[in-house]
Design a protein that fits this description.
InterPro entries: DUF5995
Shape: globular
Pfam family, one: DUF5995
Structural class: mainly alpha
Helix content: over 70%
Radius of gyration: 18 Å
Oligomer: single chain
Number of strands: 0
Largest sheet: none
Number of domains: 1
Number of helices: 9
Length: 236
């Protein structure tokens, strides 16, 4: 999908993602996640113009801020700054030869949805002068789930189908990990975290402590998602 389709603002961040992706190898863990995320972002760019959302301007603003948080990762790496703790496990293991590409994708989704999305919601609400509880905000947030499902569910299912067939119906540890990761539940958690961060945003060290705790917790989950499992089956 070309970057000129749909939202121009989202098209710009897609172009920025493409510029970063061009510097990474095909198997780079950050690149694997970026490939999936680009498809989702491209679809959102179209959906903000086709009547899917009640407030497409809000969703467009949210999506740009959300994508920019992912782009902070390669920017921090290029500037030799410390990467956010939520992203650190994927950055550290991005070149590990014994991890499945889908593990990289899931770890990226975990960091981006469970951490970055809550921050993006708060930043967007602050910029637009509306609380997350304002009429229609949560409804549009939920509609993004349907957009995600168009990309992520077929990806997960195709992996699971291949592994189950290859294993004679028995799930491998990696397939079991994949089957138990839910994007919908991750977004539910992101919404709850956004509400918490919104209410403590002006409380100085409390707000900073809440953000740090969130980043550490999300990073811990990513480390689990990036566990190297013994895999008796040949990779496709």
């Amino acid at each position: 999908m070309g970057v000129t389709e749909g939202s121009v603002a989202i098209g710009r961040v897609i172009a920025a993602m493409d510029a970063e992706r061009s510097q990474w190898s095909r198997t780079d863990g950050l690149g694997v996640f970026s490939d999936v995320y680009r498809d989702v972002t491209s679809l959102v760019a179209v959906r903000v113009t086709d009547g899917t959302f009640n407030d497409p301007a809000f969703v467009e603003d949210l999506d740009v801020r959300f994508a920019d948080l992912f782009l902070d990762v390669p920017r921090d790496l290029a500037a030799r700054r410390t990467v956010n703790k939520a992203w650190a496990p994927l950055v550290e293991r991005r070149a590990h030869p014994d991890l499945w590409p889908l593990q990289f994708a899931l770890a990226g989704m975990n960091a981006h949805i469970n951490h970055d999305l809550a921050l993006a919601v708060v930043a967007t609400c602050e910029a637009r002068g509306v609380p997350p509880t304002a009429r229609g905000v949560h409804a549009d947030f939920e509609r993004v789930n349907d957009v995600l499902a168009e990309v992520v569910r077929p990806l997960r299912q195709s992996f699971l189908d291949r592994r189950v067939v290859a294993a004679g119906g028995e799930l491998s540890p990696v397939a079991d990990l994949v089957s138990n990761f839910s994007v919908d539940k991750a977004r539910d958690a992101a919404w709850a975290n956004a509400l918490v961060l919104w209410h403590v945003r002006d409380l100085g060290f409390v707000a900073a402590a809440a953000r740090d705790a969130l980043a550490r917790t999300v990073g811990l989950v990513s480390r689990q998602l990036l566990t190297v499992f013994p895999e008796p089956l040949d990779r496709p």
